[in-house]
Amino acid sequence: MDNTESLQIQASRKEKQDPENQDTEKFIESLPKVKAWQNMNRNMYFYQGFWIPQWYLGPVLSFREHFQACDTDIILGTYPKSGTTWLKALVYAVINRKSFNLDKNPLNSASPHTLVPFFELNLYLQSKTPDFSSFSPPRCLATHVPYQALAESIRTTSCRIVYLCRNPFDTFVSLWKFNTIPTSNPKDGEPIGLEEAFDMFCHGSSPFGPFWDHFLGFWKESLRNPNKVLFLKYEDMKRDIKGDMKRLAEFLGCPFSEEEEKEGIIEEISRFCSFDNLRDLQPNKSGKLMKYYPANSFFRKGEVGDWVNYLTPSMEDRLNKVMEEKLEDSGLTFKASLQEAEPASC
Ligand code: PAP
């Protein structure tokens, strides 16, 4: 039994005591903990089988207790740094394409993170019972919370989930780099070093990790119920964005018409949501998101295979072994290099 499994057993014993009947702080303090990546002065707690950063655990509990999904909701799920910003922009542009042309699209003046807020990082962080009255259907909302720990009503209603996954090598590097960016939070401690972060990632103790259980929760549900969960991969979107946009629009019940295809609307939206275009829009160049994070820190490189600049061959071997062991038999595979993700040349 590895460390994560034994913690899972310990934590599930604790979770059987209903957190609602206890003081939340006391409940949180009773959970297993490790140092948080971004702020080594604070912790991540092991809840429902996942490591949740201290400052998001209260919001996760409120989300699970209070959120009532509607059948028309669209929920975007990602492990952190898997391309969330890109997915938010794409889905927002696709579902609103009949309401405004791209030059009038609100994405020109507001961040994808403002237009498609996170449950735990925005809405339930601000209030235990956020006001959803300003959202008109379909409500588009996002989360890093794993499938296994979502609010029950997301699983029981007919709302749809789009999950975007990224190869663990680039995900790790993007996550580690992001966690070393100085934020304007005066309480921030020392950020974590590369080796220590990598070791924790491989053991499963990364924010919202283990990454493999995060991926597998949505992956298995997408196989079991493809009308409920659409599972996309970052590298495939880089390779064939048009194909994935068509799948996305069909899944969301707003397929592109022949007329739209002829007019090149799919290409227009993909260009608009491309890394280079989004990065250069005003709301993504300046200001802060989620209180402390520079908006431009969500646009670092946007490449497949940048991990080779950070990980040694032995780290590569180790992560490959973790993936082999944890994703074995699941059918979930990744393209972790630019060559693999590039379209084949004729
Ligand atoms: P989040 O999960 O914290 O919201 P997320 O958007 O997933 O963040 O992470 C940012 C990553 O997506 C960055 O990857 P990198 O560190 O490897 O560069 C960022 O560059 C990438 N990204 C942001 N926008 C796009 C886009 N339009 N196309 C492709 N990649 C993008």
Q: Assign the CATH topology.
A: Rossmann fold
The chain-level structural class is: alpha/beta
CATH top level class name: Alpha Beta
Each distinct ligand:
3'-phosphate-adenosine-5'-diphosphate
- The percent range for strand residues is 5-15%
Extract low-pLDDT stretches. none
Q: Please give the CATH architecture.
A: 3-Layer(aba) Sandwich
Number of individual domains = 1
Major pleated sheet: 4 strands, parallel
Q: In which range does the helix fraction lie? A: 40-55%
Which term fits the overall shape? globular
- Number of DSSP helices? 18
Element pattern in H and E: HHEEEHEHHHEHEHHHEHHHHHHEEHH
Number of strands: 9
User: What is the name of the CATH superfamily?
Assistant: P-loop containing nucleotide triphosphate hydrolases
How is the largest sheet built, in terms of strand order?
5-4-6-7
Q: What is the C-alpha radius of gyration, as a whole number of Å?
A: 20 Å
Mean pLDDT: 91
Separation of the first and last Cα atoms: 49 Å
Region (Disordered): 1-24
Family: Belongs to the sulfotransferase 1 family.
Domain Sulfotransferase: 71-331
Biased composition (Basic and acidic residues): 12-24
Question: Could you characterize the architecture of this molecule?
Answer:
The structure is a single chain. By secondary structure, this protein is an alpha/beta fold. It has helices spanning 3-15, 24-29, 54-66, 84-95, 112-115, 119-126, 152-156, 168-180, 194-203, 211-224, 234-239, 241-251, 258-263, 265-272, 275-279, 282-285, 313-327, 338-341, and strands at 33-35, 43-47, 50-53, 74-78, 140-143, 160-165, 229-233, 288-289, 293-294. It has a four-stranded parallel sheet with strand order 5-4-6-7, with helices on both faces. It has a three-stranded antiparallel sheet with strand order 1-2-3. The radius of gyration is 20 Å and the shape is globular. It starts with a helix and ends in a 5-residue tail after the last helix. The model has no long low-confidence stretch (mean pLDDT 91). The structure holds 3'-phosphate-adenosine-5'-diphosphate.
